[in-house]
Amino acid sequence: MKYSSFKIFSIAFGAFYTAFFISLWSPFRYYPMLNKFSLAPIEGPEAGPPILWYGWVAAALVSSAVLALIVPRRLADRLWHGYTWLLPAITLVVILVSQRHWFL
Amino acid sequence: MLVVMLIVHGLLAVTLLGAITHQAFSVARRPRAGAGPRSFVSRFGSVPAASYAQPIVMLFVATAIMGALLYPQYRIEVRTTLEDLQLPAANGVFEIKEHLIAVGLGLLPSYWLYWRAPLAPEHAGTRKYLTWILAFLVWWGFLVGHVLNNIRGL
């Protein structure tokens, strides 16, 4: 199957993203009050709340793209096609469960 | 400028919602030969689903980018208001929205791959579930965005 590395990318992206946001690890943060990106947390009330989402998406994008390039094509070809929806679906369940604290 | 961006974001989302819902209905239906007059639901799903795939990918990305551009203002104004109003559930559904949209972005390459012409009949199931997951993500994002805009618009 041509472009079979896309399968790896989609499977890995959700897993990487979920791991990053659950661990609250982000390669950078954006401080909207300061209109500034920062690699390190900025302390103080003037900094306001940071946005980590951009960092999570960027990190998941790079990580899954690298993995998709590393995994040999014949391996990606042999991967069951159902994993492309089943594993992201499981990721969605993990996300919903991890966010249940908002509703308790 | 912010209002214009919000309207564009909303219009893109409506278009995306329509397209993905048509496609989701289309992959769910089983056409029967010689069937009588067709219902509205049946006609709703009678679309050339494959032709929707590429626009859906582009609309999803465009809507997500617009949302990402609006996000800082949301973080400063709307979220703090929701916290002041002690509406954790409203905050929670938006938190979930941002995570689901991110997962949706990651799904797009596979979604595009399985909707590429010529459609492989053996991948019909994969196409169907990818489409339904994407439809769920889009509906969640749309409804949450709409409700939160009603609580406290930008």
* Average pLDDT taken over every residue of chain A: 93
For the record, the count of structural domains of chain A works out to: 1
| Class by SSE composition of chain B | mainly alpha
Number of strands of chain B: 0
Oligomer designation: heterodimer
Query: Biggest sheet of chain A, strands in spatial order?
Result: 1-2
Radius of gyration of chain A: 17 Å
Q: Quick one: overall form of chain B?
A: elongated
Number of domains of chain B: 1
Beginning-to-end CA distance, first to last residue of chain A: 46 Å
Structural class determined from secondary elements of chain A: mainly alpha
What helical percentage do the residues of chain B reach? over 70%
How far apart are the termini of chain B? 11 Å
Determine the mean pLDDT of chain B.
91
Largest sheet of chain B: none
Strand residue content of chain B: under 5%
The dominant shape of chain A is: flat
Major sheet attributes of chain A: 2 strands, antiparallel
Strand content of chain A: 5-15%
Tell me what the structure shows.
The complex is a heterodimer of chains A (104) and B (154). Chain A has 104 residues and is mainly alpha-helical. Chain A has helices at residues 5-23, 53-70, 73-78, 83-98, and strands at residues 29-31, 36-38. Chain A has one domain (4-102). In chain A, helix 1 (5-23) runs antiparallel to helix 2 (53-70) and helix 1 (5-23) runs parallel beside helix 4 (83-98). Chain A is flat and about 55 Å long. Chain B has 154 residues and is mainly α. Chain B has one domain (2-31, 39-152). Chain B contains 5 helices and no strands. The longest helix of chain B has 35 residues, at 50-84. Classes of the chains: A mainly alpha (104), B mainly alpha (154). Chain A binds chain B through residues 1, 3-4, 6-7, 9-14, 17-18, 21, 30, 32-33, 35, 48-49, 51, 53-54, 56-57, 60-61, 64, 81-82, 84-86, 88-89, 91-92, 95-96, 99, 101-103, and chain B through 68, 71-73, 75-76, 79-80, 88-89, 91-93, 95-96, 98-100, 102-103, 105-114, 116, 123, 125-126, 129-130, 133, 136-137.
